[in-house]
Each structure stands twice: as structure tokens, then as C-alpha cells.
């Protein structure tokens, strides 16, 4: 015969198991299902670029988020974009020329201007679709992608509703940056042998990602470039980061900048400077003690949860407030259109 105390223990175990299962079922029901799709889009130079999207199923997205990935990385596999889609946002990304599954020599950036134009053309196409015209649009740039996001903003200063800049490449860290003599040499050589991989550099994978398993995943990913930077690529990265650093005061859109205190790839002091000197009236900065460069996928899970919680909370706040603004702007545009048409008819 089973003793009363043993029966009580069984009942308690059963209670906890059922409670856990109920909690898990409720969590699954409340979590937004995500649909992933990818396609190739043709750029102005006749190259096929991989476009990826993560869209909430069975509900309208709260806003649009456009991913600008970092150097030697790609969108479709590496970034934790599903987290944003599960939070109700439609997420879009484009593998740059020479990156991921897109056409081009792997790891080769011939012109940063081409990268900006490719992203601008594709992102604008998504934004201008009928179903998206009333939706807020945000840029999320990580590392080199932070520079891409800032240059997209400069290209169309009034177009984007905000940007999330994760360890942005406003300046390459001094330990990673070529010295003045090397920059002069790069400038001369990249006109002759632009694709050569002879630029001395530290192992960025070891420097960027704290979790060893993530380093191995990236090294094993055939769509992530490994090896020394190509001459023209290195020159373009130095050129663009230097230009951005000199024009930080021109940043006028709402932004959230995030940086790890132990980042050895991009300079955290310039993120602080961006916050201080940017002309934007709506700006937030968060520095994370003990975290490295790869804040979106290179940290332990507890750190990733902190970073994505900060990102999603910022998006929630801006999107909730901003949708009212877009509705007002759309109404004003319609009224202006009716006024113009009415004036023409009166004439």
C-alpha cells in the first residue's frame, strides 16, 4: 500500500508537470508565427542579390524593419531576425554584393556607394508597396551595417522613421585600423589589384564573438567570408568610417545606439560622440558592460535577451507613437491633393 506522504508527493509532481505544460501551451499560442521567404533581386549592375524577409503570419506587422548586416556576414542565416518578427515586425534584409548568397566575389566591396544604392532601391520598393505606405520604417544596422544605415539616412534624411545602430562602424577601433602609411598604400594598390587579400588584419571572428560555438558556426558557414580583407574593401571601409566620423552632427533621425563595453572591433567612444553631437532630438544610447562586438548573435543567451528586449521596447515605443503621425501625414496629403484638384477644376 502506498503511504499518504508518497501519494502527496506524486500529486505535487503531477501538479507541477501539468502547470508547466499549460504555461508552455499558452506561450506557444501567444507567440507570433513567422513566415520566412527569400528571393533574388536584380541590381543596376546586373547582379542577383539575395533578399530575405521574416513576416508575422495572420496579423498585420506593427512596422517595417530593414536589416543592414555587417562585413563578411549575411542576413539569411546568421542574424537573430526571427526575434523581431515574433514580436510583430516585418523584417527585410539584403545580402550585399560579394556577401552571403548574392553575386560578386566573396568579401569584395568595390564601392560603398553601390552598396548604399542597392539597399536604398530594394528597401524603398518594399516601403512604397500599397500595404506598407502607412507603416513606420526603421533601419537596423550592425557594425558595417551601422555605417550603411547612417548613409541611407543621409541619402534620404526625411524618409526613415528611426534607426537602431548596433556597434556601428562610425570608426574602426585603433587596433584594427590600418596606419596612415598603410592607408596611402591601400589607396594606390587598390587601383591596380583591388581584389588581392594582402591587408594584414587580426582575426575578426575571434575578436567579435564571445561564445566559442558561435565562432565555429560562422567559420563553418560557407556564406560568411573568412580571410584577410581585400584591398579595395579595406580601403572603402576606412574611407567611409572616416567620413562618417567627421559628419556625426548631421544625423537627425531618432536613433538607438547600442555598444558593448569590451568591443575591440568598432570604437565605442565614437558611439558616445554620436550620441553627444548628433542633431537628432530623439536619441538613446545603451552601453553594455562586459559585452563584445557581436551583440545580436555572439553573446550568451542571457545577454542576447537583454539586447533584444532593449531593441523591441524602443521599437514598441516609437511605432505606437509614430503610427498616429503617419495617419496625420497621410490625411494631410489627401487633403492637399483634393485642394489642388479642386483648384484645377475651378480654373
Keyword list:
alpha/beta, 347 residues, transmembrane, 45% helix, globular, acyltransferase, Rossmann fold, AB_hydrolase_fold, 8-stranded mixed sheet, membrane
Chart the SSEs and their pairings.
Layout: H1 4-30, E1 34-42, E2 48-56, E3 64-68, H2 82-86, E4 90-94, H3 112-127, E5 137-142, H4 144-155, E6 162-166, H5 180-189, H6 204-208, H7 212-220, H8 231-246, E7 255-260, H9 268-277, E8 283-288, H10 301-346
Parallel strand pairs: 3-4, 3-5, 5-6, 6-7, 7-8
Antiparallel strand pairs: 1-2, 2-4
Helix pairs in contact: 4-8, 5-8
Keywords: Acyltransferase, Membrane, Transferase, Transmembrane, Transmembrane helix
GO molecular function: acyltransferase activity
Domain Serine aminopeptidase S33: 60-296
Amino acid at each position: 500500500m502506498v503511504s499518504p506522504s508518497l501519494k502527496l508527493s506524486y500529486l505535487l509532481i503531477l501538479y507541477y508537470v501539468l502547470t508547466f505544460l499549460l504555461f508552455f501551451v499558452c506561450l506557444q499560442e501567444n507567440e507570433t508565427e513567422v513566415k520566412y521567404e527569400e528571393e533574388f533581386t536584380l541590381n543596376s549592375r546586373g547582379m542577383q542579390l539575395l533578399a530575405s524577409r521574416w513576416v508575422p503570419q495572420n496579423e498585420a506587422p506593427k512596422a517595417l524593419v530593414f536589416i543592414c548586416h555587417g562585413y563578411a556576414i549575411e542576413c539569411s542565416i546568421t542574424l537573430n531576425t526571427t526575434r523581431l518578427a515574433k514580436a510583430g515586425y516585418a523584417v527585410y534584409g539584403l545580402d550585399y554584393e560579394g556577401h552571403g548568397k548574392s553575386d560578386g566575389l566573396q568579401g569584395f566591396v568595390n564601392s560603398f556607394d553601390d552598396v548604399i544604392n542597392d539597399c536604398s532601391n530594394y528597401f524603398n520598393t518594399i516601403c512604397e508597396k500599397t500595404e506598407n505606405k502607412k507603416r513606420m520604417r526603421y533601419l537596423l544596422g550592425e557594425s558595417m551595417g551601422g555605417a550603411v544605415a547612417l548613409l541611407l539616412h543621409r541619402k534620404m534624411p526625411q524618409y526613415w522613421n528611426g534607426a537602431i545602430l548596433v556597434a556601428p562602424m562610425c570608426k574602426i577601433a585603433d587596433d584594427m585600423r590600418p596606419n596612415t602609411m598603410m592607408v596611402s598604400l591601400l589607396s594606390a594598390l587598390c587601383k591596380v589589384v583591388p581584389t588581392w587579400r594582402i591587408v594584414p588584419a587580426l582575426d575578426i571572428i575571434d575578436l567579435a564573438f564571445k561564445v566559442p560555438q558561435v565562432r565555429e558556426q560562422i567559420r563553418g558557414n560557407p556564406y560568411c567570408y573568412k580571410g584577410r580583407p581585400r584591398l579595395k574593401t579595406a580601403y572603402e571601409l576606412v574611407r567611409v568610417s572616416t567620413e562618417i566620423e567627421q559628419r556625426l552632427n548631421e544625423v537627425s533621425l531618432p536613433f538607438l545606439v547600442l555598444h558593448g563595453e569590451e568591443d575591440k572591433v568598432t570604437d565605442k567612444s565614437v558611439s558616445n560622440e554620436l550620441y553627444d553631437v548628433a542633431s537628432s532630438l530623439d536619441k538613446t544610447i545603451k552601453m553594455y558592460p562586459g559585452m563584445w562586438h557581436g551583440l545580436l548573435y555572439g553573446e550568451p543567451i542571457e545577454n542576447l535577451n537583454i539586447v533584444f528586449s532593449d531593441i523591441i521596447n524602443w521599437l514598441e515605443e516609437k511605432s505606437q507613437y509614430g503610427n498616429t503621425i503617419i495617419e496625420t501625414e497621410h490625411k494631410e496629403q489627401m487633403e492637399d491633393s483634393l485642394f489642388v484638384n479642386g483648384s484645377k477644376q475651378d480654373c
